[in-house]
Predict the structure of Glycoside hydrolase family 13 protein.
Amino acid sequence: MTRSVHAVTTLEDRRGEAWWTTAVVYQVYIRSFADGNGDGIGDLTGLRSKLPYLADLGVDAVWINPWYPSPMADAGYDVADFRDIEPSYGTLAEGEAFIAEAHELGIRVILDIVPNHTSSEHRWFEAALRDEPGARDRYIFRPGRGPAGDEPPNDWQSAFGGPAWSRLDTGEWYLHLFAPAQPDLNWEHPEVRAEFEDILRFWFDKGVDGFRIDVAHGLAKDPALPDAGERLPGSQHTDPHPAWDQDAVHEVYRGWRAVANAYADRVFVAEAWVPGNDRLARYLRPDELHTAFQFDFLRAPWRSASIRAVIDDALEQAATVGAPATWVLSNHDVPRTVTRYSRSQPDHLVETDWERARWALEEPNHELGRRRARAAALLQLALPGTAYIYQGEELGLEEVEDLPDEVRQDPTWFQTAGADRGRDGCRVPIPWSNSEAPYGFSPIAAAENTWLPQPGHWAPHTAQAQAGEAASFLTLYQQALALRPQLWTTDEPVEWLDAPHGVLAFVRGGVQCWVNTGTTDIELPAGMQVVLGSVPGITDGVLPTDTSVWLAEPEHDR
Ligand code: GLC
Ligand code: CA
């Protein structure tokens, strides 16, 4: 039996705790969410038109990927002006209207701040190129090595591939841990610090509820800029590195926290890929950031033992600093959840480049991937803390692996000379309605192209096709999001239950969550009532493979 579902939409804190300790946040990749003006690119008009959809879905907040003016060398993560809105997305006034309309619907707004680097077209870098006095000090310029100075200052590699240094015609080198069009800022410079604190205030004053901090583990570098040495492939998230996760970064966030504390109820969420949850917890000390993505969760294979280990470690480390855990199954940088689960599962945490390399080696079974992704959603939403949903995850979209090479835009694709196909496949515009592209994403004609083309077989996955369908992905998310605040507050701990091999089972606040990652159906405990199952029909005390269920004792029913 499924309980009645009613959406809770209010900015009032339902449970007397800070909203961000339990929130479900929906990630809007604005370029691909909804196109209002018919140029094939998502925008604010489109986003505003979909606010009722987000309210019906039942999310507490949205996080919007960078919406600032940008030459789009890295889909907006190359910011030219942090105090305005990209003209192809809309105007600052429209952004303000969006914030107000979201708040009216009970949806909070989190922006994406990109402090590690600017666009090469930012006024600061343009001043540095002109070699205005002091302008280069805001970035990381160094002389080259070798007799002619024509070798990079050190051996650091760009996260997108190739050297992390580029040379100006005049001979100087500058650091870019990402694309050459994304020069790294010098966070030892007081003006850089002051500028970003001011940018935070600019948007807080406009009512923004928080910021996702892009590469929060960047910013501070080992001042000696030493060589990093030989790195094993795929070790970028596990080994210490002089460019990443340096202790000096924490002072920056103490300053930011002080800025946020001058406002009510504002929140930071860190994107910090660090070598372990003990390192992650350092970002979450009480005078630093509020939350940080738990990426081990999205790196975990579909195996109960791996997932349990990740959950235990994440909860234990977050507890040491009194922070909520922040569960994330996918985002705009990693292959979509459905696809990750649609191939044979390794026995280790995965790196995204490793995962993309497997596309050529094994056919995906999307039906299986979808079944597992539904089960994973109920797991994610039963855990204590906050949860992020990446747009399209609620529709069960798969990664588009077969984008033609000529449409690819991710700098990863270019900087690895095609060796890594990059992240475009999870950034394809969302299908809203109709039976052919652009599936209601855009008012353009079917023959015209959205900024990345959509697959021809997405008709069954549109929001319209799924709305009101009992067995659809969308309905599952709506039900789970409506039930979540009724079933749990925040403090109920996870208590593991004995479970057969391949099965995760825990109880939280009287409600049990069972997840079967194994190869055989299992028997569920007797006397419990099904609150919600990841597939319809889990009623007869049996949990099939690749499904999950929430169970309550009958007297727990309200
Ligand atoms: C983060 C973003 C990613 C971007 C990179 C550089 O990892 O999520 O999309 O390319 O930072 O800003
Ligand atoms: Ca548009």
About this structure: The longest strand covers residues 108-113. The chain has three domains: 7-116+191-476, 123-175, 492-557.
